Amino acid sequence: MLNRNRHIVYNLAGPSTQQPSSRSSLVASPNHGFSPYTKRPISMTGMNIAAASWAGAAGIATGLPPTSGSHFTNGSSIPTVPIQLNGPSHVIPAFAGMAAILMCAAGLPACFTRAAKPVSNPDSRKSDKKPSPAKDKSFRRSKKVSRKELVKGPEEVVKKYMVKLEQRTDEDCIICMEKLSDLSGYDGVSHSKTIQPDSVGKFTKCGHIFHLLCMMAMYENGTKDGSLQCPSCKMIYGEKTGTQPKGKMDLYLLPQSLPGHPDCAAIHIAYYILPGIQGPEHPNPGRPFTARGFPRHCYLPHNDKGRKVLELLKVAWNRRLIFTVGTSNTTGEADTVVWNEIHHKTEMGSNVSGHGYPDPNYLDNVIAELAAQGVTEDCLRQ
């Protein structure tokens, strides 16, 4: 059996947090959350058990006062045993009585009492230390709210990344295929109170020009995540997110090397996604989708560039960009989980299918594919 270090990345409804593990993590990163919600403690309050205090039950069982030791005529006495209870001071009377009977049978009569509460200075319980942002739940909650507030409506997003032009050109709008000097082809389909059907704008960075109403229609048909992508050069404005269903990403470190990378170990990635129901961002909301071939196993060399690709894949996973729901190019099945234009190597020791090693250009190619999805080295510095 192979020795493997394991790390888990969860893709849940919301941002994820780090999961502690008894085994060492493959890559430690403070910017990622990798664990599920913490488990709730089991509560005994709903069991409807008839209970009494430890001291009272012990006193009933022994026939002695629970608060002090008892003295006999010959001068002997039963010692008092203080008991410190954590939480509610209620136990089953039969248990307390049994404990007293067993101690008496052993020649050790005792009276159980509740230990006195320690007297402490109220000021000593106060701490001058402030909770760190990573451990302060209210801080995390405020970050989530502020991030949601950044997502504006279609008009605000278009105006944020595009500048309106007063001069018209006779070029074609590649979205509606109408002249930029004419009305948008989406006039009557997309409605806006502030954007006119003949309004034209250009992107602030790449400079490509489109009907503003066409860009608004394109945004409304996407994931509505607050980002825009230029239809001409594919430059992404904002943070792009995808439609990947919920799942889990496991990471392992294998001692074996990959063909073409003999000087290092291998990184093993396992993706887990279960069948489910499509959401509003999927092609057929409300209909079930399948998840064939999961878990899917992929491999990277454990060198500098391989670890860099791994960190970029973590970002892409958290942004729901690795998979999507669509039609399989292999089987033609619709409404199933498919790869989302970020190629992975699924063969470890061969390259029979073309999805294995050796492949000297793979790491550079996948970095370019990730950049096309808006995942670059700049994301790792945030």
Provide structural commentary.
Helices cover 22% and strands 18% of the residues. By secondary structure, the protein is an alpha+beta fold. Among the domains are: 154-237, Herpes Virus-1; 247-379, Enolase-like, domain 1 (2-Layer Sandwich), CATH 3.30.390. The strands form 7 sheets. The protein has a 4-stranded antiparallel β-sheet, with helices on one face. A hairpin with a 6-residue loop joins strand 9 (228-229) and strand 10 (236-237). Helix 4 packs across helix 5 (212-220) and helix 6 (304-318) runs parallel beside helix 7 (362-372). The relative contact order is 0.10. Residues 13-25, 27-70 and 118-150 have low confidence and may be disordered.
